[in-house]
Amino acid sequence: MFTPDTITRFKNAETPFYYYDLDMLRQTLQACYDASSRYGFHVHYALKANFNPKVLQMIQSFGFGADCVSGGEVKAAIDYGFKNNQVVFAGVGKSDKEINFALDADIFCFNVESVQELEIINELAEKKGKIAKVAIRINPNVDAHTHHFITTGLDENKFGVNTWQLDDVLKALRACKNIQFMGVHFHIGSQITDMEVYKSLCIRINEIAAWFEDHGFTVKILNAGGGLGVDYHNPDTNNISDFQSYFKVFKDFLNVRADQEVHFELGRALVAQCASLVSKVLYVKNGQKKNFLVLDAGMTELIRPMLYQAYHEIENVSRTGAADLKYDVVGPICESTDCFRKDVELPESFRGDLIAVRTAGAYGEVMASGYNLRDRVQSLYSV
């Protein structure tokens, strides 16, 4: 929901742009901090969701760690003040260059996704005379009940180690003298809103952690990953995820010793609701069966709807009144898939109207591209 003063600012700005509500971000971070610190849990922010500088600065100010999936993200996290000993480095395809950079930075932990990666990290660490701390990312074969494009914890997924490979992992850990085993890591997918899924994950974490302990390895870190979803349909009335229920599931169902730490890697839930993509209607095309609103923003500014049919609320912020017409809201890109949503109910809309695509703070600006040689767009911030 935008105030009259905010809409006036929009009218004076060049479109399209990302609008960041920093107060909304602050409220969300506070809610996460309060809920996680109640149980002594450690939260790492997943930079892949959004690495806008102002966003990173505010997240860092709450004392959260950083979850990175590239050497560039490791560097950005450190540059923006995240503590080296709170940086974890995940990703199924870490290059030697990226591993070396992270070793030199003395990060907290590598989340290792294959036996071969474990051996490569050991080899590179040995050359530097360093000991690399690692957690093993394991596929628990827990169905996240989310879109199949963003499910990551099932068997035969490109991510992580499958359970039938764990004996090989133990052999490699025993052979790698420049590796310090820290614990186990899991991530089963994104946009998960069913808390029963996390109960199932806890059961598998308990089983796998106990298996490592039974085989002589001390599990200090239980990293449950992230994936907590947000309400894309009600961005004004349900704009902060239920962090209390989320963390309580792990408090209630995870077996944690006094000497163990529980870690999380949250991205979307922290930043999704703090931003909207604001665009202008270039053309209104009225057909016999379809009406189209052609915007000056498209898949180059927000690709989620085109990439995996993601839903975003869309509103005409220039007009009030009954939503009595249906439009296919599309972008200007020369691709038939460049459509934000079909049959969107809006007030009758006209050229020059401002359209807001809500809940664009996660996987919006970070996935923007210059396809069609389009300019990268600016960001506006609440005052």
UniProtKB/TrEMBL annotation:
Pathway: Amino-acid biosynthesis; L-lysine biosynthesis via DAP pathway; L-lysine from DL-2,6-diaminopimelate: step 1/1
Residues in Orn/DAP/Arg decarboxylase 2 N-terminal domain copies: 39-272
One Pfam family named in its UniProt record: Orn_Arg_deC_N
Molecular function in Gene Ontology: diaminopimelate decarboxylase activity
Keyword Methyltransferase appears in the UniProt entry: no
Residue span, Orn/DAP/Arg decarboxylase 2 C-terminal domain: 18-361
CC cofactor: pyridoxal 5'-phosphate
EC number: 4.1.1.20
EC class: lyase
Record has Lyase as a keyword: yes
Keywords of the record: Amino-acid biosynthesis, Decarboxylase, Lyase, Lysine biosynthesis, Pyridoxal phosphate
Family matches, as InterPro entries: Ala_racemase/Decarboxylase_C (IPR009006), DAP_deCOOHase_LysA (IPR002986), De-COase2_C (IPR022643), De-COase2_CS (IPR022657), De-COase2_N (IPR022644), De-COase2_pyr-phos_BS (IPR022653), Orn/DAP/Arg_de-COase (IPR000183), PLP-binding_barrel (IPR029066)
Signal peptide start-end: none
Catalytic activity: meso-2,6-diaminopimelate + H(+) = L-lysine + CO2
Family: Belongs to the Orn/Lys/Arg decarboxylase class-II family.
Protein name: Diaminopimelate decarboxylase
Organism: Mucilaginibacter ximonensis
